[in-house]
């Protein structure tokens, strides 16, 4: 069902543009800061732990508060929360750029990076809910393909933009958000998006449980590479986080106005799409990190050149996202989701087979294919999941899907990163022993190198050829694992989703609970 105001085509495009500019900042900031980390650490005198938290605080706050942001959007108002989120995000960005030198620097930048994440968590579910409510069901595939295609592509722009801005000052990587925010605010005021919301009390008990659960477990995943999986603190953090999430699910079932209507998971397509998103997000965000490292260490590229390497992935992603969106509108989600997972699995598998040649020209079309597969499935899977909610719960559904996606990305980075480090350490130890180094010394040196993994700065001479090749073999193992993960996603989608177009979902009942949702028009069971 369309929004009652019945916006025209031009008005809808203006709303879409406003929401894309609003969320653009959150996507850029997922990757732009990592490029400037060495310069930030050097100028501010941050500890290694402090600089890691300058990156992680943003992602942790984003993951922990998505469900809260979605619920706020549905109960307080979507446009209001987008405006607040944009202002908070831009303000926190400005303050990050104004980080003073001295003893206060570390606490300052970590705190305002976390505030950035909170602003993004408030903004993103509301922005996506506005797009969903603005476009009728049969037009959402194309609209959200554009939304996810452009916004997702900005993740790849981050390293390139960051590389150029840091040549002036690292502070500019935060200040660049301010003009983007001003454009977003102007577009929101001009477009005046009209959506419906349902005032309701906030479930602060549920908020405390899910924020703590997601925060603790994501923190454990983030620290696994630094502390090692054998550290008891990792298991305690992850275990306690998962336990809190289980408690959260039980508590929500008995809460009159819950943060999340857990009964929505009884809707089979919503559950399946979230499982697909969880599986595929083990790959989607981590691939940027591993491909960038490979480009810098194995291929000897600069940070900016590594960003260009990632653009090939998004060349396939953006084009396929538009096709996938149209396929969703014409025939439902199953075909583009299954096709995308299969293409991506093939792309990653073929890409893995070429990385040890240390020539990008032999890899580029497989990189494009892997990105295209992701483009086909990501938008339709996310859109189909959100479509299953009632019109008054789109923000909540978005909060759920984004929490699932960020949670999986953290897990994927931890697991795949552990695989890469172990493979690189093993191969490098063997290579150093072959060079005549005693095994104990070789193992120690390889262990240090596998944990630091600093980029080559564009100079092939700065990294021995055997080190580059060993790192390429470690990356190959990761890419093979990614191919297997995407194959699992294809199987889940093939077995779990049904063919056919989706009907408009039922509205929420009088008690606020979701009414049974109509699934596909053709077959639901």
How would you classify the helix and strand content by structural class?
mainly alpha
- The CATH topology name of the largest domain reads Growth Hormone, Chain: A
Shape summary = globular
Number of domains: 3
Strand count, sense and closure of the main sheet?
A: none
For the termini, the CA-CA separation is 23 Å
Q: What is the CATH class name of the largest domain?
A: Mainly Alpha
CATH hierarchy: architecture of the largest domain: Up-down Bundle
**What is the chains' assembly state?**
single chain
Report the total helices: 18
What's the order of the H and E elements?
Answer: HHHHHHHHHHHHHHHHHH
Mean pLDDT: 84
Radius of gyration: 23 Å
Task: Characterise this structure.
There is one protein chain. With 525 residues, this protein is mainly alpha-helical. The chain folds into three domains: 8-139 and 147-198, Growth Hormone, Chain: A (Up-down Bundle), CATH 1.20.1250.20; 203-258; 267-501, Growth Hormone, Chain: A (Up-down Bundle), CATH 1.20.1250. It is 74% helix and 0% strand. It has 18 helices and no strands. The chain has helices spanning 9-28, 32-44, 48-76, 78-97, 105-134, 140-165, 172-175, 177-191, 204-227, 232-253, 268-284, 286-297, 303-331, 334-352, 364-387, 394-434, 439-452, 465-496. Helix 3 runs antiparallel to helix 4. Residues 1-5, 454-459 and 507-525 have low confidence and may be disordered.
SSE blueprint:
Blueprint (H helix, E strand, L loop, with lengths): L8 H20 L3 H13 L3 H29 L1 H20 L7 H30 L5 H26 L6 H4 L1 H15 L12 H24 L4 H22 L14 H17 L1 H12 L5 H29 L2 H19 L11 H24 L6 H41 L4 H14 L12 H32 L29
Helix pairs in contact: 1-5, 1-6, 1-8, 2-3, 2-6, 3-4, 3-5, 3-9, 3-16, 4-5, 4-8, 5-16, 6-13, 6-15, 9-10, 9-16, 11-15, 11-16, 11-18, 12-13, 12-18, 13-14, 13-15, 14-15, 14-18, 15-16, 16-17, 16-18
